[in-house]
Design brief:
The protein has 225 residues and is of the alpha/beta class. It has nine helices and five strands, in the order ββαααβααβαβααα. Helices cover 52% and strands 16% of the residues.
């Protein structure tokens, strides 16, 4: 039995004040084991003398939570390491970006998000239909995302999609990958529109540097329609 896992992560929050709302979906064929990827990542952390803590892009960029007492150099090292390791994961991803000013309430947003996810699934229907089961992983997130995901998956694939919480190291790394990809795609959009923050420039440099050092490699993981 072939099983597809979908890991979701969002940036912006449905009740927040950010200009954009971003949703990233990471797709992983469970037949493709990532135990070696996890071990290499842990070894990389040890080799750099860093603490083995979960990757969380927002706090890392801003020096909050687990990263509060770390130097910028250490935080940069965390990001660079995980960026390299995500490139070697057997995954595909897709990001949806919405301008908050164009969203007309939660119900309308659910409809729009469901439509966008549905279209993505239909565009890759042959691939998705090859799986016997689809599991959706989405922890502590927004209800609108969970609703849109379930409705789209069940409508297109006619399969039961169950919402799971992360339960093992593989799940955690893939969920953290979704977090990083969400942040990178939002940052890319901000650079394109000259809306980057000082934090973006400090971590990633110029728009040209960001494109060459971060997006050029990672965009190869995008799910092509």
């Amino acid at each position: 039995m072939r099983e597809l896992s979908i890991f979701a992560d969002e940036s912006g929050g449905q009740d927040g004040h950010s200009k954009y709302y971003v949703l990233t979906l990471v797709f992983h064929d469970q037949d493709l084991d990532i135990a070696d990827n996890i071990e290499k990542h842990r070894q990389g952390i040890l080799d750099r003398g860093l603490k083995d803590i979960p990757f969380h892009a927002g706090p890392l960029l801003n020096g909050h939570d687990d990263y509060a007492n770390m130097s910028f150099k250490e935080r940069k090292s965390y990001f660079t390491l995980f960026h390299i390791d995500v490139q070697h994961l057997p995954i595909r991803y897709h990001t949806f970006l919405y301008k908050r000013s164009e969203l007309a309430g939660k119900d309308a947003f659910v409809v729009r998000m469901r439509r966008d996810i549905t279209n993505l699934l239909f565009d890759n229907l042959e691939c998705f239909q090859s799986f016997d089961k689809v599991k959706v992983y989405y922890d502590d997130g927004q209800a609108i995302v969970a609703r849109a995901l379930h409705m789209a998956v069940e409508y297109v694939l006619s399969k039961e999609s169950v919402l799971y919480r992360k339960t093992n190291s593989s799940d955690f790394m893939l969920a953290q990958a979704a977090d990083m990809l969400c942040t990178l795609e939002l940052t890319a959009h901000k650079f394109r529109n000259k809306e980057q923050t000082r934090t973006d420039e400090k971590m990633f440099g110029t728009a040209h540097t960001f494109k060459n050092n971060y997006m050029k490699a990672i965009k190869r993981k995008r799910l092509v329609k």
